[in-house]
Inverse folding.
C-alpha cells in the first residue's frame, strides 16, 4: 500500500468517524475494498511499534549494521534456545479418542496418521517449523499456515500431429477439461511482517486475518484472470522500511502487493489490492470448510499478554543488559589494542634496533661492548611503555562482562547446562538441579511450540478428511479398502447360492478380498472424516511430543496395576478354589485396584469376564482335592499362627532386654553425674590457685612494663635531643652552603665584569 493511499484512507476515516457495522462503509464492491484497506491500515498502526522493534531485532541478530567491538549475545541466545525448543521433525500420532471396539475409527485414524506422516516427510514441514521458531525467538511471534494444494491435469485432448498443433496454436482448445490429478497438504511459514489480524484481546475474538503476497503480472493473471491485468505494479515495496539488500531479492519484474483476507464472520476469503479500488480481485466462499475457518493455528507468542495480541520480542527484556555488554566488550577491545609492546632506546647505541628486530637465537655483534657494560646492560638502555595498569583494567572488565552475561542468562533462563557449559568441581547432583530448573523455565515455551505443531497437524488432518478423495488416500497411505458396492458384491460371492444348471460356477473370492470384507468400507471411513462432530468425537490427532508424557505415565501405571492384580490373584486364588472367597469378591477387589489406578472401563470389563474354575469331572476326586486344599490351607493357617506366637514371644523378650538395658543406663548416668560433680569441685580449687598465681604474675608484669616505659621515655627524650642537634647542624650547613654560593656568584659576577672590561 503506497503512502498517498494510506494518507487518503486515514483522512476518509477521520471524516467518517467510527462506524457501527460493516454496512456503514457503503454498499458495492468498491466499499468492500475501502473497508478492508482501512482495516489493514488500523492493524498496521496497532503493530507499528512492534514492527520497529522486530526489525531492529533482526538487524541485531544478523549484524546488518554491526557496532565495532560488539558482543552479539542475541545470536548466541537464539542459537542456544532454538534447538532446546524445537530440534527434530514431528511424528503424527493419530488414534481413537476412546479405547473402545471401534474398527471404523481405528482405520480412519490409521489413514489420517499415514497421510499426515507422508506430508511431513515429503513437504519439508521441519524447515517451515524451524523458521516459525526463529520468528518466535526474534520478533516474538511465529505464524504458519496450512495449505491445500490440488494438482489439476487436462483430459479429453487428442494427440494431434506437430503440424496441427502449430496450426491451432492460436485457437482455444474447447475439447479440453481439467480433473483432479493429485492432492497434497503443506505447511508454509508466514513471514512475520506479512501477517495482519483484526482487533481482539485473545485469539477467539479475532474476526479476520490477512496474508500479504508480492505477485508478478503472470502470477496475477494466472490467479485472477482478466482482473490481474488491471492491477498496477511497483518496482519495490517503498512503504516497507526493510532494506532491500537484506530481506528482499531485487527482481527484474515488477510486482504488486495483494492481501489475502480471511473473514471469519462472513466465512469468505477476499483478495484485495490497493491499486484496484473498484472491487476485490477475487472472493471465495469458505474454500477449506474448516471447523474454525482459519488455515492457521493460534500464533506463537514469546511473551503472552492478557490485554492484547501485540507481540513483544524476547530481546526487549534484556536489551539494556545487552547494550551494557556491548560497552564492556568495546572497552576490552580498545584497551587490548592499546596494550602493545612499545618503548624507546638510547640512539647512541645503534645495535639496539637490530637486536629488537632479531629472531629467536640471533646473536648481534657489538662494535663497542664496553658502552653497554657502562650503562648497566641492555635493560638499562631500553625503556618499555608500562602496561600493567591497562592489564589490571582489562581483567576487571572481563569479570564485569561475565557478570553481565550471567544476568542475561538468568533473565532468559539459558542455564549453563543448556549451553553445554559446566565446571569440573560441580557434583552430579548440582548439575542435575541446574538442568532440572533450567529445563523447567523452557518447558512453557516448549509446550507452546508443541501445541502449535499439534494444531497444524489437526488442521491438516481436517483438510485431508474434508478434501482428499479415496483414490488419493489409498495411493498415499497404502491402506486398501473396498467401496460399499464392492464389499456387497464380495459378500454375495462368499454366501452360498444354489447352482443353476448350465451356468458356470462363480469365480472364487481371493484371500485378500476375504480379509478386506472384514474391514470397513471407504464410505464408512469418509463419513467420520467428513463430519466435524464424528471426527472430533472418535479421532484424536496428536504428535509424538504431546503424547510422550501421557504414554510414559500410562505404561508405568499399567505395569503397576498388572503387578498388583497378579499378586492379588496369586494370593487369593487358593481361597477362591476351595470356596472360602467367592469369585465375585475377587473381581470386586481387582476392579477396586483398577479404579484407583484409573485404568478405565475397558480393564473393568475385562475383569468382569473372569470366570470361576470349572468343576472337575469326578466329584469324589474333586471332594478329595478340596479336602486336601482345605487341609493344606489349615496347615498354612496353623503355621502362620505358630510364627505369630513365636514373633510375639521374641517381641516380649526384646522388651525385657530393653527394660534391663534402660535400668543399667540410668545407674551409669547417676554414677557419671556424681563423678562429674567431684571433678568439678577439684577443678574449681585448682582454678582458684591458678587465678591467684596469675594475679601475682600480672602485678610483676605491670611493674616491669612501667619501668620499661620510663626507660623508653628517657630514650625518646635523648633521641629528640639528638635530632634537634642534627637539625641545627643541617641548618648551619645549609646557611654555609648558601653563603658559599653567594660568594661564588659574586666572584663569577666580578669575573664577568672584568671580562667585559
Amino acid at each position: 500500500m503506497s503512502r498517498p493511499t494510506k494518507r487518503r484512507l486515514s483522512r476518509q476515516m477521520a471524516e467518517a468517524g467510527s462506524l457501527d457495522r460493516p454496512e456503514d462503509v457503503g454498499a458495492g464492491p468498491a466499499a468492500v475494498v475501502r473497508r478492508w484497506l482501512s482495516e489493514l491500515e488500523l492493524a498496521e498502526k496497532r503493530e507499528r511499534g512492534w514492527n520497529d522493534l522486530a526489525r531492529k531485532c533482526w538487524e541485531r541478530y544478523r549484524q546488518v549494521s554491526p557496532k565495532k567491538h560488539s558482543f552479539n549475545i542475541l545470536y548466541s541466545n537464539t542459537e542456544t534456545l532454538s534447538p532446546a525448543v524445537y530440534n527434530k521433525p514431528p511424528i503424527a500420532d493419530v488414534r481413537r479418542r476412546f479405547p473402545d471396539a471401534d474398527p471404523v475409527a481405528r482405520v480412519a485414524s490409521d489413514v489420517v496418521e499415514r497421510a499426515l506422516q507422508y506430508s511431513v516427510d515429503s513437504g519439508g514441514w521441519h524447515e517451515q517449523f524451524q523458521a516459525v521458531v526463529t520468528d518466535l525467538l526474534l520478533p516474538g511471534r511465529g505464524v504458519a499456515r496450512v495449505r491445500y494444494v490440488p494438482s489439476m491435469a487436462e483430459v479429453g485432448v487428442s494427440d494431434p500431429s506437430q503440424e496441427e498443433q502449430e496450426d491451432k496454436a492460436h485457437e482455444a482448445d474447447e475439447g479440453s477439461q481439467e480433473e483432479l490429478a493429485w492432492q497434497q497438504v503443506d505447511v508454509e511459514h508466514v513471514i512475520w511482517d506479512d501477517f495482519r489480524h483484526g482487533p481482539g484481546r485473545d485469539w477467539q475474538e479475532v474476526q479476520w486475518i490477512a496474508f500479504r503476497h508480492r505477485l508478478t503480472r503472470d502470477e496475477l493473471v494466472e490467479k485472477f484472470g482478466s482482473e490481474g491485468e488491471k492491477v498496477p505494479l511497483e518496482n519495490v515495496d517503498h512503504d516497507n522500511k526493510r532494506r532491500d539488500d537484506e530481506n528482499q531479492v531485487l527482481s527484474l519484474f515488477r510486482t504488486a502487493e495483494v492481501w489475502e483476507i480471511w473473514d471469519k464472520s462472513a466465512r469468505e476469503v477476499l483478495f484485495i489490492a490497493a491499486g484496484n479500488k473498484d472491487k476485490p480481485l477475487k472472493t471465495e466462499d469458505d474454500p477449506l470448510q474448516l471447523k474454525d475457518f482459519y488455515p492457521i493455528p493460534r500464533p506463537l507468542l514469546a511473551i503472552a499478554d492478557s490485554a492484547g495480541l501485540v507481540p513483544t520480542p524476547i530481546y526487549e527484556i534484556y536489551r539494556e543488559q545487552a547494550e551494557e555488554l556491548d560497552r564492556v566488550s568495546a572497552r576490552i577491545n580498545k584497551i587490548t589494542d592499546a596494550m602493545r609492546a612499545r618503548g624507546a632506546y638510547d640512539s647512541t647505541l645503534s645495535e639496539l634496533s637490530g637486536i629488537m628486530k632479531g629472531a629467536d637465537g640471533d646473536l648481534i655483534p657489538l662494535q663497542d661492548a664496553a658502552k653497554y657494560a657502562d650503562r648497566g646492560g641492555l635493560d638499562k638502555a631500553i625503556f618499555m611503555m608500562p602496561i600493567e595498569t591497562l592489564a589490571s583494567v582489562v581483567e576487571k572488565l572481563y569479570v564485569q562482562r561475565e557478570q553481565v552475561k550471567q544476568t542475561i542468562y538468568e533473565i532468559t533462563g539459558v542455564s549453563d547446562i543448556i549451553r553445554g557449559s559446566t565446571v569440573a568441581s560441580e557434583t552430579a547432583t548440582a548439575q542435575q538441579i541446574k538442568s532440572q530448573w533450567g529445563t523447567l523455565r523452557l518447558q512453557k515455551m516448549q509446550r507452546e511450540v508443541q501445541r502449535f505443531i499439534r494444531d497444524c497437524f489437526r488442521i491438516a488432518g481436517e483438510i485431508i478428511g474434508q478434501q482428499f478423495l479415496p483414490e488419493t488416500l489409498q495411493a498415499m497411505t497404502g491402506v486398501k479398502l473396498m467401496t460399499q458396492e464392492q464389499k456387497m458384491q464380495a459378500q454375495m460371492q462368499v454366501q452360498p447360492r444354489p447352482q443353476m444348471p448350465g451356468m458356470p460356477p462363480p469365480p472364487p473370492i481371493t484371500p485378500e478380498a476375504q480379509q478386506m470384507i472384514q474391514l470397513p468400507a471407504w464410505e464408512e471411513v469418509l463419513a467420520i472424516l467428513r463430519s466435524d462432530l464424528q471426527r472430533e468425537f472418535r479421532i484424536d490427532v496428536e504428535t509424538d511430543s504431546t503424547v510422550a508424557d501421557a504414554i510414559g505415565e500410562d505404561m508405568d501405571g499399567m505395569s503397576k496395576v498388572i503387578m498388583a492384580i497378579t499378586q492379588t490373584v496369586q494370593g487369593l486364588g487358593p481361597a477362591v478354589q476351595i470356596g472360602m472367597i467367592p469369585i465375585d469378591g475377587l473381581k470386586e477387589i481387582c476392579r477396586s485396584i483398577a479404579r484407583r489406578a484409573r485404568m478405565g472401563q475397558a480393564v473393568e470389563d475385562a475383569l468382569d469376564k473372569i470366570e470361576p474354575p470349572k468343576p472337575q469331572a469326578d466329584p469324589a476326586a474333586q471332594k478329595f482335592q478340596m479336602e486336601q486344599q482345605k487341609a493344606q490351607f489349615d496347615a498354612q493357617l496353623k503355621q502362620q499362627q505358630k510364627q505369630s506366637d513365636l514373633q510375639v514371644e521374641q517381641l516380649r523378650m526384646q522388651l525385657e532386654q530393653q527394660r534391663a538395658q534402660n535400668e543399667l543406663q540410668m545407674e551409669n548416668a547417676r554414677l557419671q553425674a556424681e563423678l562429674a560433680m567431684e571433678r568439678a569441685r577439684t577443678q574449681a580449687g585448682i582454678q582458684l590457685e591458678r587465678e591467684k598465681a596469675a594475679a601475682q604474675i600480672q602485678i610483676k608484669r605491670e611493674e616491669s612494663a612501667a619501668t620499661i616505659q620510663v626507660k623508653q621515655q628517657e630514650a625518646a627524650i635523648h633521641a629528640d635531643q639528638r635530632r634537634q642537634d642534627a637539625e641545627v647542624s643541617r641548618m648551619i650547613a645549609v646557611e654555609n652552603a648558601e653563603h658559599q654560593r653567594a660568594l661564588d656568584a659574586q666572584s663569577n659576577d666580578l669575573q664577568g665584569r672584568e671580562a667585559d672590561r
Remarks:
- Residues 619-756 form the longest helix (138 residues).
- The two ends are 102 Å apart (CA to CA).
- The chain is about 60% helix and 10% strand.
- Residues 12-16, 160-176, 237-249, 416-424 have pLDDT under 50 and may be disordered.
